[in-house]
């Protein structure tokens, strides 16, 4: 198949998932065309079946807001026609689903070809940004105009039905992880640099937006470090980082925390970590938590959104109400101070991640694509 994938090229989960999907499809001999404004972060090696088409947005003094969506739709048309694409798979509704609708119309009017559009909803395109009145009519329309709609969790599917007038079926295809990539032994030298006295290593990775409640991560760690010798690694960057740095100074734990910024090699970092913290107010899925589990790192998380679909309370980690720092701290301390329990949870986390392995989920997407290719 010749598949066009449209996504955000950044570190965010939707872009990561879309890129990993494209790479997996290319490995299965499909031809994959990424259409986006920058080389996707995880598209970091050459593959004969992968093509990257950059969306250029020419500027002009009149444009206070350069029209990205127009540039994207026009690039989609070019790529569809020049490469004889069979379908477009867009990740994150805004503005990808509406640009795809426009591209589909143009291709049909000019060539009579009907290009199927599949829209995968990822989370904030529905729960935060999409719900905004400014965007909602276009989001509703373009989702309904998609030939197939998928959501990355049952929770997100339900949220979408609650927030928008959706007339079509939304299919749940959970996010996936390439388990084999994350099953690796930690590099001792690396661990010694972070935790020179054999301390436990806690980890959080995100885009440091408000929704992640980074201050809760810092406050949990402040409790843990009182009871268990430990260090905290904070991976990623974003608007809440300065506040987290200030809070860790205020709580006198700045020296025990490393703010390492954006990192591509998450598997190296996870391999030396003992516990993953995800304190979000909402996660449609929580891909970062799944990657942690694949590496055998148990997860202390909130019970928001789709997190209970992956993190099993009392088995792969613990779930608490949003903002319940004492509960999350207690769970973290209990787990880190009981080696037998920690080892069991590590095994459970790996076993749970196997259910979301790339080899199970990618064929589900292929089957979905095939449905559209076989319809005359
Ligand atoms: O977490 C973010 O804020 C980034 C966002 C994105 O669009 O990249 O992540 C969303 O999509 C991921 C992949 O499907 C999910 O794992 C995240 O849970 C989801 N984020 C939210 O729902 C807040």
Automatic annotation (TrEMBL):
GO terms for biological process: bacillithiol biosynthetic process. Residues 195-349 form the Glycosyl transferase family domain. The keyword Lipid metabolism does not apply. One of its GO terms (molecular function) is glycosyltransferase activity. Pfam families: Glyco_transf_4, Glycos_transf_1. The keyword Transferase applies. Residues 11-181 form the Glycosyltransferase subfamily 4-like N-terminal domain. Coiled coil: none annotated. Keywords: Transferase. This is Putative glycosyltransferase. It comes from Flavihumibacter petaseus NBRC 106054.
């Amino acid at each position: 198949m010749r598949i066009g994938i449209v996504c955000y090229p950044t570190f965010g989960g939707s872009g990561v998932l879309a890129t990993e999907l494209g790479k997996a499809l290319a490995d299965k001999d499909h031809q994959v065309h990424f259409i986006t404004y920058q080389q996707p972060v995880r598209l970091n090696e050459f593959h004969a079946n992968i093509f990257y088409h950059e969306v250029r947005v020419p500027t002009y003094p009149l444009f206070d807001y350069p029209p990205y969506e127009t540039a994207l739709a026009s690039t989609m048309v070019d790529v569809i026609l020049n490469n004889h694409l069979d379908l477009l798979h867009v990740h994150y509704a805004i503005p990808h689903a509406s640009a795809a609708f426009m591209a589909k119309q143009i291709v049909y009017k000019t060539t009579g070809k009907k290009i199927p559009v599949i829209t995968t909803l990822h989370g904030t395109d529905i729960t935060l940004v999409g719900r905004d009145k400014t965007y909602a009519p276009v989001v509703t329309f373009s989702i309904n105009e998609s030939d197939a709609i998928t959501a990355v969790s049952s929770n997100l599917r339900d949220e979408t039905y609650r927030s928008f007038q959706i007339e079509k079926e939304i299919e749940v295809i959970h996010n996936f992880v390439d388990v084999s990539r994350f099953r690796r032994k930690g590099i001792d030298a690396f661990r010694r640099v972070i935790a020179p006295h054999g301390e436990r290593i806690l980890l959080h990775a995100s885009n440091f937006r408000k929704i992640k409640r980074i201050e809760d991560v810092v406050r949990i760690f402040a409790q843990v470090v009182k009871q268990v010798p430990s260090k905290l690694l904070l991976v990623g960057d974003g608007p809440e980082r300065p506040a987290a740095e200030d809070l860790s100074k205020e709580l006198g734990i700045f020296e025990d925390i490393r703010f390492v910024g954006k990192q591509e090699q998450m598997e190296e970092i996870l391999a030396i970590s003992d516990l993953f913290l995800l304190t979000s107010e909402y996660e449609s899925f929580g891909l970062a938590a799944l990657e942690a589990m694949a590496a055998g790192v148990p997860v202390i998380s909130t019970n928001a959104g789709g997190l209970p679909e992956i993190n099993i309370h009392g088995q792969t980690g613990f779930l608490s109400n949003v903002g319940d720092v004492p509960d999350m701290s207690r769970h973290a301390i209990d787990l880190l101070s009981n080696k037998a329990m920690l080892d069991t949870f590590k095994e459970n986390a790996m076993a749970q991640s196997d259910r979301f392995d790339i080899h199970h989920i990618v064929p589900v997407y292929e089957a979905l694509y095939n449905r559209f290719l076989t319809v005359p």
